[in-house]
Amino acid sequence: MDTTPNTPTPNTTTPAVVRDGLLAGKVAFVTGAGSGIGAAAARLFAREGARVLLAARTESRLKAVTEDIRGLGGIADYTVCDLADADDVRAAVDRVVHLYGRLDVAFNNGATGTPPGPMDQVREADFDHVYTVNLKGTWLAMVAEVTAIRATAGTGAIVNNSSVGSLWGNPELPAYGAMKRAVNSLTESAAVTYGPEGIRVNAIAPGTTLTEMVREWEDNSPGVIERLNARTPLGRAAEPEEIAQAAAWLLSDRSSYITGTVLRVDGGMSA
């Protein structure tokens, strides 16, 4: 639901695969790739010349996105993976190397949320699940990805998907914001640790983006998108591909001197 219908939106026409694109010749791994930002990223990375392995929990969605990519001439496969399962995460990264012989870049996008509300209304089970998926799952993926990059490509790049909700107090989504802030810290620590090996690690912090998670938030709190858009200088929510474009650039060699940053992709909301 974009509450500013007169605002121009980006052209999302899907071109054919660009063989000399941003990620040409690279092997990419994307979590949460069945929908939203992850699906947009998988499609974009393939168009930009990467061979892509998609990972998420729902096979039907993964299969649909993979078939879309292949239909446009891209190279893609998928693996079912639950970020709450450590063995699943490690096996998914191993499968990238098994399929394509290497790993160059990874986009850790997969995440879950909790019903909006103040901290005292967050159920302990929900808090634990958000921790397991959004923080521990990202940590597990990063460790496996660094190991795979080091053993195959030698150098590479990782991007973690954070949130502008991690950058300030988040009374409506306190557990989600806390885990994403911790992801920022993991990102910075990994950048310092693995930079000397030529492995760059960055994060993106999207603002309001028209994903299932945000639409569910709108369903639970009618008017929230309009309220967030009113705080955004560009006056609208992002399309998932706009966020994916930032991730693609950070994973590409064009950002070769950038590591340890949390890039705000938020239409100016945090300015």
Describe the structure.
The chain is of the alpha/beta class. The chain has a single domain (27-265), classed as Rossmann fold, CATH 3.40.50.720. It is 43% helix and 14% strand. It is built from 8 helices and 7 strands. The protein has helices spanning 36-47, 59-71, 86-100, 124-151, 174-194, 212-220, 224-230, 240-251; strands at residues 27-31, 51-56, 75-80, 105-108, 156-161, 199-206, 262-265. It has a 7-stranded parallel beta sheet, sandwiched between helices. Helix 1 (36-47) runs parallel beside helix 2 and helix 3 runs parallel beside helix 4 (124-151). It is globular. Residues 1-13 have low confidence and may be disordered.
Summary?
This protein is of the alpha/beta class and 271 residues long.
